[in-house]
Amino acid sequence: MNTLSYGLLSLLTKNSRSGYELMLHIQPFWSAKHSQIYPLLALLEQKGHVAYVHVPQSDKPDKKVYSITEQGKEALREWIAEPTDEPVTRDELSLKVYCIGLVDKEQARKMLAVREVYYRKKKERFGSLMDKLQQGSDKPLAQLEIGDDAFGMYVLVHKATMKVDTDLIWCEWMKEKLK
Amino acid sequence: MNTLSYGLLSLLTKNSRSGYELMLHIQPFWSAKHSQIYPLLALLEQKGHVAYVHVPQSDKPDKKVYSITEQGKEALREWIAEPTDEPVTRDELSLKVYCIGLVDKEQARKMLAVREVYYRKKKERFGSLMDKLQQGSDKPLAQLEIGDDAFGMYVLVHKATMKVDTDLIWCEWMKEKLK
DNA sequence: CTTATCTATGTCATTATTGACATATAAATA
DNA sequence: TATTTATATGTCAATAATGACATAGATAAG
Could you say which residues form the signal peptide (chains A, B) (predicted)? Predict the structure, then answer.
C-alpha cells in the first residue's frame, strides 16, 4: 500500500469524510488529485481498511462518507512503526532561480512577485486553519498534548506557518537583492 | 519537455558536467534518481539542446561530459518566461504526525529524533556548499548581484539554509511538547 | 578478508501522479 | 446572460518517477 493510502487512513482517524473532503484536507500536506484518491479509496474499501455509507444530498451531489475500520487502524499502527521516507520537494522556481542571470532584473522581480502572492495566500489559509482549530478546541492550542485529538493537526499547521513565514522572509530578502 | 530536463539545462549553464555529477548537484533542489536522468540526457542530446564528449578515465569509469548548446540556452530562456508551477512537497512524516496520538510519547520522540538527524546532516551539507561557494568567489557572497555567476546558487543555498533552520526549530519545539 | 561506498552509465518493469474526459446541480461572478 | 467556482464521483491514457537489475574498478571501513 502506498503512502497516500496511509495518509487517507490517517485523516479518517479523526473524522469520517467523503473522498472530496479527504482530497481538500490532505492537499496542504501531500499533493494529490482526486483522480488518484478515488481509486485508492475503492482499494482501501476492498481490503476492509475503510467502509462507506452513501449519503444522498438534495442541493449538492450525493456523496460517499468513508470511515476507518478496526483493521484500518491496525494497518496504520504498523505503518507508523516503520522507518519514515525522507521528504520530497520539487520546486520549479528553484531551478529557474539557479540560472536567473539569463533574464533581466525586471523579469526576475516579476517571477518572484508571483511566488510571493502564492506564499501570502498560503499563509492566510494556514491562519484560518489555526483559527478554526482554536474554535473547535476547549483549551488554548498551546496547551494541547499528544493525547488530544487536535494535537497532530495543531503541530502540523504550526510547522507549515513557520515554513511559509520563512519563505516570505526569503522573498523580502530577494527583493532587496534585486533592487 | 519536462521540468527536470530544464533543470538539467539550468545546471549546464554554469559548468559542463557528467550525468552522474548532474544527478548529485540537482538533488538538493529536485529529487531525481540516475535512472530518470540518463534517459533525459539522451533525449536532450537528440534534440540538440546538449552535446557531450566521451572522457576516458583510468582510475574511475569513463564518463560523458555534457555541455549546453546555443539551442539549449534558447529553450531555457523560453521556459523561464513561462508561468512557474507551484512547489510540490510530499513528506510522509507529516502524515504520521497527524495521527501521532496512535503511538506513545516514547515512539513519537524516536520518530522525531530520526528526522532531526536528517535535518542536521542537511544543514551541514548546505553549510559546506556555502563555504565552497565562498572559496570560489572573488567577493563576499553577500555582495553578489544578479549578473554574477554564483548569484543563483548563493540565493538558493541561503533559502535552503533558512528552511532547514526552521525545520530544526520545529524539532526543538516538538521535543518540548513531547516532554 | 569481506563488505560497503563511490565512481559511472545504462535499461526496464512497476508504481505514482497528472491531465483530460465525463456528468450534474447550485451559486456566485462578470 | 454567460462563465467560473464549488460540490461530488469516477475512468483512463499519458507522463513522471522509482527500484531493481546489470556491469565494473577503486577505495575505505569493519
Answer: none
